[in-house]
């Protein structure tokens, strides 16, 4: 093991062990720092995330949803408000959105939270690039004005809990979602196979998925976005298992294969490909050296999928 890699291992393993202790975890990863890591919270970003998913979904044939789930919103709750406004304008006030996270990055229970957020969305640039037709945009803005002035309260639920608790709560009420979407969140899920299995169970027959999955080690995205593939599985567990927001090692083909295994039809699968992998194969752990070149060049994946209508 090269000296610099040994040093990185020692530091990461020590940090990983320290994170087992809540006090140490708070010192190493304070909540405000975590909030900054887990996405932007400004209104302009909310519009851009909405536009990205809305455009892909519409091009694939999506026409609206009654109940939606956003996985890992981080600080960005504006996109959920935009989805609620868009679908609510088309399907009345029965439309709802659930935002589920494992770290609390928002305080929507405070007074005027949604009203203030709606006003920020109204004040942000939105006339171009939203993906909405003019009449649709007018309807969304009208609903946002009602929220901003306190005449309408959005049906958006914000939940912070582990995956098992979240699924149990949804299953206890017979909840299934017509649309499940996420933006740069799934790469942080450690129990990734269990997550996809749960999402499959929580998807309504004929329900939609739209996800932007960042396949990168966020700390080294610009220099070596596949740094996490350099470690063997035991070493990676020892260095990253208890780090808040640690990046899993699933590649694009694994996410796509899992969705297909759940019976989903893949409608869109676009990889963001770099010109070449950032490191030679010889530096990768043995289990990753045989990956196709495309999987090592892919820094992110955009996927749209649809569940069958005859789900068992």
Written overview of the protein:
With 312 residues, the protein is an alpha/beta fold. It has one domain (38-215, 250-306): 3-Layer(aba) Sandwich (Rossmann fold). It has twelve helices and seven strands. Strands 3-2-1-4-5-7-6 form a seven-stranded mixed sheet, with helices on both faces. Helix 4 packs across helix 6 and helix 6 (113-123) runs antiparallel to helix 7. The relative contact order is 0.14.
Instruction: Identify the quaternary structure here.
Output: single chain
Query: Which strand order spans the largest sheet, edge to edge or round the barrel?
Result: 3-2-1-4-5-7-6
Shape: globular
Q: What is the highest CATH level, the class?
A: Alpha Beta
Q: Sketch the topology as an H/E string, one letter per element.
A: HHHHEHEHHEHEHEHHEHE
Number of strands: 7
Specify Rg, calculated over alpha carbons: 20 Å
Q: And the CATH topology?
A: Rossmann fold
**Helicity level:** 40-55%
Question: How does the helix and strand content classify structurally?
Answer: alpha/beta
Instruction: Report the biggest beta sheet as strand number plus sense, adding barrel if it closes.
Output: 7 strands, mixed
**Gap from first CA to last CA:** 50 Å
Mean pLDDT: 92
Number of helices: 12
Q: Which architecture name does CATH use?
A: 3-Layer(aba) Sandwich
Low-confidence sequence ranges? none
How many domains, as an integer? 1
Percent strand? 15-25%
Kindly report the name of the CATH homologous superfamily: Vaccinia Virus protein VP39
């Amino acid at each position: 093991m090269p000296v610099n890699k040994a040093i990185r291992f020692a530091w990461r393993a020590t940090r990983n062990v320290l994170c087992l202790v809540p006090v140490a975890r708070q010192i190493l990863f304070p909540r405000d720092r975590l909030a900054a890591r887990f996405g932007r919270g400004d209104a302009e970003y909310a519009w851009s995330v909405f536009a990205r998913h809305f455009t892909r979904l519409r091009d694939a044939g999506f026409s609206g949803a009654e109940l939606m789930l956003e996985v890992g919103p981080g600080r960005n709750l504006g996109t959920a408000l935009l989805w609620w406004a868009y679908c609510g304008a088309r399907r009345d006030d029965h439309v709802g959105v659930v935002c589920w996270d494992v770290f609390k990055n928002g305080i929507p229970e405070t007074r005027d939270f949604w009203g203030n957020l709606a006003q920020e969305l109204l004040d942000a640039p939105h006339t171009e690039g939203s993906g909405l037709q003019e009449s649709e945009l007018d309807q969304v803005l009208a609903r946002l004005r009602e929220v901003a002035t306190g005449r309408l309260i959005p049906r958006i639920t914000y939940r912070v809990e582990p995956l098992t608790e979240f699924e149990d709560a949804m299953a206890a009420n017979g909840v299934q979602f017509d649309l499940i979407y996420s933006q740069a969140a799934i790469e942080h899920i450690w129990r990734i196979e269990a997550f996809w299995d749960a999402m499959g169970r929580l998807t309504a027959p004929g329900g939609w998925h739209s996800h932007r999955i960042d396949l990168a080690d966020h700390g080294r995205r610009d220099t070596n976005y596949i740094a996490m593939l350099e470690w063997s599985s035991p070493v990676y567990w020892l260095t990253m298992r208890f780090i808040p927001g640690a990046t899993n090692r699933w590649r694009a083909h694994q996410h796509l294969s899992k969705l297909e295994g759940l019976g989903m039809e893949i409608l869109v699968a676009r990889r963001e490909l770099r010109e070449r992998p950032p490191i030679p194969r010889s530096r990768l752990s043995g289990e990753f050296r045989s990956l196709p070149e495309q999987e090592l060049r892919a820094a992110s994946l955009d996927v749209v999928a649809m569940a069958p209508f005859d789900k068992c």
